[in-house]
Amino acid sequence: MPTPPLMPVYPRCDVRPVRGEGCYLIGERGERYLDFASGIAVNILGHGHPTLVKAIQDQAATLMHVSHLYGSPQGEALAARLVDTTFADTVFFTNSGAEAVECAIKTVRRYHYAGGEPGRHKIISFSNAFHGRTLGTISATNQPKMRDGFEPLLPGFTVLPFNDLAAAEAAVDDFTAGFLVEPIQGEGGVMPATLDFLRGLRRICDDKGLLLILDEVQCGFARSGTFFAHDQYGITPDVMAVAKGIGGGFPLGACLATEEAAKGLVFGTHGSTYGGNPLAMAAGTAIMDVVANDAFLENVRTMGNRLRSGLEQMIPNHDHLFESVRGVGLMLGLKLKTDPRAFVAHLRDRHGLLTVSAGDNVVRILPPLIIDESHIAECIDKLSSAARDYQIPQAA
Ligand SMILES: *Cc1c(COP(=O)(O)O)cnc(C)c1O
Asked: What's the CA gap between 354 and 182, in Å, rounded?
């Protein structure tokens, strides 16, 4: 094949999906894949869900885009739904996760500026975090593959060890604005924050007048079995970035905040041409209609527990390869005793199962949130067969 005219920042892959049906993707040659990657935690209703498809079709035919020069009944309605369901008082809509995190960073800096402490600009973030690919969000990670060659990055970030509360407490000084943290790290390897860590960051913020930003771009929107992952920690943030699942495949993100935290983002200080346009709002509203209720969340927890115990039961039969399972709800990580990338490719190419590799030798298992028992059985079956016929590559 000739080299395609796309910047080669992604690996080339022989799985080339052309259609989706529920929890399956269909490739160019008609072959089927069980999609337990969900576009990296995006397609929470799987592919072609009738509620989402109809909402987008109807809205596309009615009104797709207008500028923020005019009022937005669609944006007001979806923001009201989000505010009613969460800690937040106010919402800014974006097109992606990185933009939602950028908005959160700007919100926190402006908060201290508006409060008369413009020197408080420094954000503390954590090792192996992933917050996006803009210059601002790569400044908040310590991962060399994302940072190298892009310097100078944005000043005002300190990256500390994840789940080390003492280090976080010790690093706070007169320039600290707040913390930025994923309650469950995704790219870092499906690594939940400990209860003490997240609650401790909340306490430090309360004691010292700092703001807590949660990045729930990957773990939020029902993925963890509660609407947001922080619901399981008994704390709320001041500012939160969401995206991925919120649009179910339509590009949408949001920055949610308390009224107090957002006090600096006044008229003219921030904006986005597309963010929150009527088409995106229709997608977000359809997703809310389906997922923001107890029955849906309960089912995510039930399926998450079944999938998890299926994985746990399978591990002893293949303990040359599998080490352990971690994660919450339908955000699960299968830790291998070897680099996961070749095994993820083997699952994909030989067994028709799509998963995602992550840090710390983890295979991420991120199915659509609408799976049933049959999909779980199929996944376990494919993982077991794949473990049987997989040759662990010998290090050169
Ligand atoms: C994917 C992700 C982002 C970035 O989202 P984009 O839509 O790719 O910009 C930010 N934070 C977390 C935790 C993510 O998983």
From this structure: 24
Residues of the chain with pLDDT under 50: none
| Helical segments of the chain, H only | 38-41, 50-62, 73-85, 97-114, 135-138, 144-147, 165-171, 195-208, 278-291, 294-314, 341-351, 373-388
Whether 101 lines ligand 1, by a CB cut-off of 6 Å, is yes
Between CA 197 and CA 348 the distance in angstroms is 36
As a whole number of angstroms, the distance between CA 315 and CA 64 comes to 49
Phi and psi at 29, nearest 5°, equal -95, 10
Whether the CB of 216 sits within 6 Å of ligand 1: no
CA distance 344 to 312: 18
pLDDT at 187: 97
- 155 within 8 A of 190, measured Cβ to Cβ: no
Judge residue 394's burial from the number of C-beta atoms within 10 Å of its C-beta, 0-12 exposed, 13-18 middle, 19 or more buried. exposed
Testing ligand 1's pocket by substitution, the residue of 218, 228, 230 carrying the most ligand atoms inside 8 A of its CB is: 218
Q: What is the gyration radius of the CA atoms in the chain, in angstroms?
A: 21
CB of 232 within 8 A of CB of 226?
yes
Which residue out of 40, 105, 130 has the highest number of ligand 1 atoms within 8 Å of its CB and is therefore the one to mutate?
130
- DSSP state for residue 172 in the 8-state scheme: -
In the prediction, which pLDDT does 276 show? 97
Specify the pairing of strand 122-126 against strand 157-160. parallel
Paired with 215 in beta bridges are 241
Residue 141 near residue 125, CB atoms below 8 Å: yes
Residue 159 near residue 192 (C-beta atoms within 8 A): no
Predicted TM-score (pTM) of the model is 0.98
| Helix, strand, or coil (residue 268) | coil
